[in-house]
């Protein structure tokens, strides 16, 4: 059965957000946590960037192999252990307690300056939800620490699927009781939007200084339905910019 038309529910549809990197400044939080641990000779911002990059590689590797959804804390820990081993940081230097603190630090993040304002503006006209890989507990902890005011949270754990599997986007659309064309995917990751576009969702790319460092931004600027600058920490850019854009229509 086709979903009920969105206008009958008093909303223009739904805006689905990726969470980490798109709505949150994960790097500042992770670097701050790394800096609180026993001193080493490792460049900590570079370690944080490598942790994020290899984590994405691991997620995509597991997806391509058809592996089941894994608790994101387990993935983060496995990647961290490998990176610390490469850097020569043994358990004698950073032991179990330190490593667990670092993994837990992904649950406590800071929102980009534009995120809360933008989400609140969007909620005037749309259902606004998080649709992201990870556990529901991770999403709840991030929402608690950041104050991001989503209507609902859809995790890969909850849906038992992993982005960029098209079925994850379709399942979220089904739960929202909408059609794909009534839903907009917003992310700072091109792979995420490419998958959403394949099922008929509209797509808005938010450029963040921590994300998609290997993507050709000239291509990305024209690949999706809209492109929003989120690199300046302006209260009018990023997610607030998405809200202004959708007010005009895309």
From TrEMBL:
GO terms for molecular function: hydrolase activity, acting on acid halide bonds, in C-halide compounds; phosphatase activity. Keywords: Hydrolase. It holds the Pfam family Hydrolase. InterPro entries: 2-HAD, HAD-like_sf, HAD-SF_hydro_IA, HAD_sf, PGP-like_dom2, S-2-haloacid_dehalogenase. It comes from the Eukaryota. Belongs to the HAD-like hydrolase superfamily. S-2-haloalkanoic acid dehalogenase family. NCBIfam families: HAD-SF-IA-v2, HAD-SF-IA-v3, HAD_type_II. This is Haloacid dehalogenase. It comes from Mycena alexandri.
């Amino acid at each position: 059965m086709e979903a009920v038309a969105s206008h009958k529910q008093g909303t223009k549809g739904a805006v689905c957000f990726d969470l980490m990197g798109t709505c949150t400044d994960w790097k500042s939080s992770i670097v701050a946590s790394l800096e609180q641990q026993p001193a080493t000779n490792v460049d900590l911002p570079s370690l944080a960037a490598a942790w994020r990059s290899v984590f994405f590689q691991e997620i995509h590797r597991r997806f391509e192999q058809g592996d089941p959804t894994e608790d994101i804390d387990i993935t983060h820990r496995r990647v961290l252990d490998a990176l610390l081993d490469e850097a020569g940081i043994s358990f004698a230097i950073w032991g179990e307690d330190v490593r667990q603190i670092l993994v837990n630090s992904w649950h406590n993040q800071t929102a980009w300056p534009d995120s809360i304002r933008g989400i609140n503006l969007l909620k005037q006209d749309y259902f606004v939800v998080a649709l992201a890989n990870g556990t529901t507990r991770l999403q709840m902890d991030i929402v608690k620490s950041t104050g991001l005011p989503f209507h609902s949270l859809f995790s890969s754990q909850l849906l038992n699927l992993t982005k960029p599997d098209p079925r994850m986007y379709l399942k979220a659309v089904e739960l929202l009781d909408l059609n794909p064309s009534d839903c907009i995917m917003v992310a700072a990751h091109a792979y995420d939007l490419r998958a959403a576009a394949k099922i008929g969702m509209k797509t808005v790319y938010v450029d963040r200084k921590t994300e998609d460092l290997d993507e050709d931004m000239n291509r990305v600027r024209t690949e999706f339905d809209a492109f929003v600058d989120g690199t300046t920490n302006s209260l009018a850019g990023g997610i607030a910019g998405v809200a202004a854009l959708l007010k005009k229509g895309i």
